[in-house]
Amino acid sequence: MNRNETTETLTEEGKKRKTKIVEALDKVTNRLMHLQRPDNESELKALEGDAARRGYYARDFGMDAWDWPQGIGLYGLEKVGSYFGDERFADYAKPWMAARIAEGLPSRNINTTAPLLSLMELPEADALSLEWAEWLASGLPRTEENGYQHVTTGTTPDEVTLNENEIWIDTLFMAILFTAKMGVKYDRDDWRQASLHQLLLHIKYLYDRRTGLFFHGWHFGGRHNFSEAFWCRGNGWFTLGLPEYIDLMRPYLDEGVLVYLTQTFRSQSEALLRLQHDSGLWHTLLDDPASYTETSGSAAIAGGILFGVRRGLLPGSFAEPAMRAVDAVLDRIGEDGLVQGVSAGTPIGRLRDDYARIVTAPMAYGQALTVALLGEALYRG
């Protein structure tokens, strides 16, 4: 086969792959907009032992609630709009927000901030976004060193679980990105600087210098990283969120800070690629081959790496293994657009094995992080 024939063959393969990605993206997006509670919810609720410890949180399922899974769902829809230049995000988000406000919004906490990461782009959400940003600045409980304490929704939507003196890697995506976006949108240097302080503080206490990976959380009172688990989706929050943060805040970052963040991102990406499973995915406990491979975290990791390559934060050679993850994720999308193999809501585990015992179920964030990955894959051509 001569060179021209090879090029032609690769081009045709590339076209087929792109068509497959576009078709999958459409299916996953449509299912996300109509995602309801899982068919086997009664089985999940009746899990032997502590259902919450296994990942059963009733509020997490579907799109008809205001919390972090739905917030990441909105993020995915916003991404689709940016990829295709259409209005599907606004067309969906406006009535979605109106319905949630009519029902009554839940308590303000780190996780319930997540929907505003995308809703803040709508004029209808301006007042609410400003109120929430002011609350993050002056009302959210703080840890030592003035960290964003990872306060979450309690037993009911009106209650909170304080998680006193704890910071979690999830906070980058749930609240720090929102703080930065609001600082840029409203030219509030105090909000921009607050977001940078929170990001650097989370890196300081959650980054493991030995491995290049991130722990799930840090407890200031106990001075420990809990079970020291390297959780797949937790690392994915950083891999996808950090290049988003840099892209947004680059004009406001000193060169030394930019280099530091970029080097941390590259170190983590290198560590992750060393742990990638032969399938192209990552284990839910990254360094435990006995734990299951998990789709949402894998999608966030691969999507963040592709985004980093596209923005010049990572070498081009990192794209090939990330594209292997694209193929693996495509294999987990059903004909109905449901993304399979997604771990449910995951609290900080008392034991490393707690992460491996989290149930899997179709989740809004699984759909959304898959959307983010497939969109980045399209940029590769």
Tell me about this structure.
The protein is mainly α and 381 residues long. The protein has one domain (16-379): Glycosyltransferase, CATH 1.50.10. It contains 14 helices and six strands. The chain has helices at 3-33, 41-45, 68-84, 88-103, 116-119, 126-138, 171-185, 189-206, 232-249, 255-274, 295-310, 319-330, 353-356, 364-379; strands at residues 152-153, 160-161, 166-168, 217-219, 282-283, 293-294. A two-stranded antiparallel ribbon has the order 1-2. A two-stranded antiparallel sheet has the order 3-4. A hairpin with a 6-residue loop joins strand 1 and strand 2. Helix 1 (3-33) runs antiparallel to helix 14 (364-379), helix 7 (171-185) packs antiparallel against helix 8 (189-206) and helix 11 runs parallel beside helix 14. It is globular. The two termini are 24 Å apart. It comes from Saccharibacillus alkalitolerans. Pfam families: Glyco_hydro_88. This is Glycoside hydrolase family 105 protein. GO terms for molecular function: hydrolase activity. Keywords: Hydrolase.
The oligomeric state of the chains shown is single chain
**Radius of gyration computed on alpha carbons:** 20 Å
CATH class category label = Mainly Alpha
Number of strands: 6
Number of domains in the coordinates? 1
Give the end-to-end Cα distance, rounded to a whole number of Å: 24 Å
Number of helices: 14
- Unreliable spans are 1-9
CATH fold naming:
Glycosyltransferase
The helix/strand class is mainly alpha
Write down the secondary-structure element order.
Answer: HHHHHHEEEHHEHHEEHHHH
Strands of the widest sheet, in order across it, are 1-2
Helical content (DSSP H or I, runs of 4+): 40-55%
CATH architecture label: Alpha/alpha barrel
Reported for the largest beta sheet, the result is: 2 strands, antiparallel
Beta percentage is under 5%
